[in-house]
Design brief:
Elements: E1 4-7, E2 14-17, H1 27-40, E3 42-45, H2 52-60, E4 65-66, E5 85-89, E6 92-93, E7 96-97, E8 120-127, E9 135-139, H3 140-145, H4 149-155, E10 159-162, H5 164-171, H6 180-185, E11 189-192, E12 194-196, E13 203-205, E14 211-214, H7 219-233, E15 239-242, E16 249-253, E17 257-261, E18 272-278, E19 284-286, E20 292-294, E21 296-297
Parallel strand pairs: 2-3
Antiparallel strand pairs: 1-2, 3-16, 4-18, 5-18, 6-7, 8-16, 8-18, 9-15, 9-17, 10-11, 10-14, 11-21, 12-13, 19-20
The structure holds succinic acid.
């Protein structure tokens, strides 16, 4: 069947119309979702009423699931009965946080500081504040394609060093510093900062808030270049901001997008989201000559 969609913005995104995710879905429908996902980078599903098990089962149709490690904090990050679900919430029950507060309040793609960054993520809104608590998404294909040719020539095939150890306190000032064991578990990694999407073959800019250095470029030039590229990637013309309704679920492709939870008044309002995360492969960039440049250990 041809699934009906509605565009979310000029930058990226489509809403899926007329399919109930809680009902049975055949392989053909899932294959169509995948094609639409590859085309639009993010897919919105409305009025999703799911048990955590259904959320997990649906995501699994797109690939293997990643279990998020609880790094830099001692609150429970994952659902107590379904570790494949990360809970993003500022809610406390009996004085105990039910999930991770202020997760993703900065532009990133999931797992970009890991050896195997995550392929995709599916965030389901259970409770949202009135008129705030939005999430923004950026299309990093469009960001790459809009770069001047000389900048593309300069960065194509170069790797950047992504460092959890150096950037954790900057990106998560609300969390305790990493322990030595956590630092050991999350060593630095060098990723190609322009990345060939393994399914579409298109090139996306792959740089974010954990990048600290670019190979072959001296620090005094590399750091401003990282700042320039990270700001460029999220220019308004490449982005869409989603105002959540309870029951919305968004599936995004981390290989060609970045996202950011917009800060909100979390002293006053409750926000409760559940996210499943898909395992990804080793990022790479294919040069014009056909050479494949892959990520490497830090
Ligand atoms: C995330 O980065 O996955 C969280 C996004 C959000 O809560 O809006």
């Amino acid at each position: 069947m041809a699934i009906e969609t509605r565009s979310l913005s000029d930058a990226l995104g489509a809403e899926i119309l007329g399919v109930d995710l809680a009902g049975p879905l055949d392989d053909e429908t899932i294959a169509e979702f995948r094609q639409l996902w590859l085309q639009h980078c993010i897919l919105l599903f409305r009025n999703v009423v799911w048990s955590p098990a259904q959320h997990v089962a649906f995501t699994r149709r797109f690939g293997a699931l990643h279990i998020m490690p609880g790094i830099g904090h001692d609150v429970p990050t994952n659902h107590p009965d379904h570790p494949e679900i990360m809970v993003v919430s500022n809610i406390k029950r009996n004085g105990t946080p039910i999930g991770l507060r202020r997760a993703g309040w900065g532009w990133h793609s999931d797992g970009e500081d890991k050896k195997l960054p995550n392929m995709g993520s599916l965030l389901h809104a259970l409770k949202v504040p009135p008129d705030q608590g939005d999430t923004s998404f950026a299309n990093t294909y469009k960001a790459y394609e809009a770069l001047p040719q000389e900048v593309r020539d300069r960065i194509d095939g170069r790797r950047g060093r992504f460092s959890r150890a150096e950037r954790h306190s900057v990106n998560y000032p609300n969390l305790p510093p990493l322990t030595n064991a956590e630092e050991r578990d999350r060593p630095d990694v060098w990723h190609p900062i322009t990345r060939t999407h393994p399914e579409t073959g298109r090139t996306a800019l792959f740089i974010g808030r954990w990048a600290v250095e670019i190979e072959g470029i001296p620090k005094d030039e590399g750091e401003p270049l990282i700042d320039e590229l990270t700001s460029h990637a999220v220019k308004p013309e490449f982005t869409y901001t989603h105002r959540w309704r309870a029951g919305d679920a968004i599936l995004w492709d981390n290989r060609c997008t970045q996202h950011r939870a917009q800060p909100f008044d979390d002293e006053t309002y409750e926000r409760h989201m559940q996210r499943t995360t898909l395992e990804g492969g080793v990022p790479y960039f294919v040069t014009r000559a056909g050479e494949q440049i892959e990520s490497m250990a830090g």
